[in-house]
Design a protein that fits this description.
single chain, alpha+beta, Pathogenesis-related Protein p14a, 18% strand, globular, binds 2-acetamido-2-deoxy-beta-D-glucopyranose, secreted, signal, CAP_sf
Length: 261
């Protein structure tokens, strides 16, 4: 029999982190943007991946994410097209970028790499997007939502991150296991266990061939569709039924919402 305290511990293990400095209520600061990219790259470098690209900030993706964050909806952007997307929301303390990335990455514990599958009933899609080897651009926007559609609690800081090329391609693992950088695309060098283009990516005008391959693979096999359905067992979008236990705990500040989709 679980006491309410141990139940809380079960449902909210790493969620209640205090003392984070509140960010500005509505936009990511330069510092938060830097943290976002660096934390992604930290987790990416830690994966024993042979082909992990370095991720960099993309202003167009950031503007796209910000525009959606302003709509204050707790659910994936159905208009996101061929962009990956991770969401995070938090009350009270304000936006906490390190916590957001940590919350996404912690889903690793439920991901079975050899089976390329998430444990039934669990969510792994945020994690696999964070460490998706071929995703090399991220852009995020945050917005303070007095009312967040789909959530009863009020006054929530919403974070939306979009990714290109998108991860979570059905039937694919997030990366190739192996010696770091041992399978970087041609034209890439190794820098701190991550593959980095030899030329400034901003100056690259042609799509690298591996990206073209990825795109056609995705079309053939079906990238995760914009509704976020059924790429991984337990991944659902907008249905809200995974919410039950969390909604019951909304009285405990700070509420952190992640891992719903
Ligand atoms: C992961 O999946 C493989 C292959 O399906 C299976 O043999 C193994 O037991 C799974 N590992 C865990 C920890 O569930």
């Amino acid at each position: 029999m679980l006491s309410s305290r141990s139940l809380l511990a079960l449902l909210l293990p790493p969620l209640l982190l205090l003392g984070a400095a509140p960010g500005p209520a509505g936009a990511l600061s330069a510092e938060e943007r830097r943290e976002m990219v660096e934390l992604h790259n930290l987790y990416r470098a830690q994966a024993a991946a042979a082909n992990m690209l370095r991720m960099r900030w993309d202003e167009e993706l950031a503007a796209f994410a910000k525009a959606y964050a302003r709509q204050c909806v707790w659910g994936h952007n159905k208009e996101r097209g061929r962009r990956g997307e991770n969401l995070f929301a938090i009350t009270d303390e304000g936006m906490d970028v390190p916590l957001a990335v940590q919350e996404w990455h912690v889903e690793q514990q439920h991901y079975n790499f050899s089976a390329a599958a998430c444990e039934p009933g669990q969510v792994c899609g945020h994690y696999t997007q964070v460490v998706w080897a071929r995703t090399d651009r991220i852009g995020c926007g945050s917005h303070f939502c007095e009312k967040l559609q789909g959530v009863e609690e009020t006054n929530i800081h919403l974070l939306v991150c979009n990714y290109e090329p998108p991860g979570n391609v059905k039937g694919h693992r997030p990366y190739l296991e192996g010696t770091p950088c041992s399978q970087c695309p041609s034209g890439y060098r190794c820098e701190n266990s991550l593959c980095e283009p030899m030329s400034d990516p901003e100056e690259v005008t042609e799509t690298p061939s591996f990206l073209a391959t990825e795109a056609s693979d995705s079309r053939k096999e079906g990238a995760e569709d914009p509704a976020g359905s059924e790429t991984y067992a337990g991944l659902t979008s907008g249905s809200g039924h995974i919410w039950g236990p969390l909604l019951a705990l909304l009285l405990l500040p700070p509420l952190v919402l992640a891992g719903i989709f």
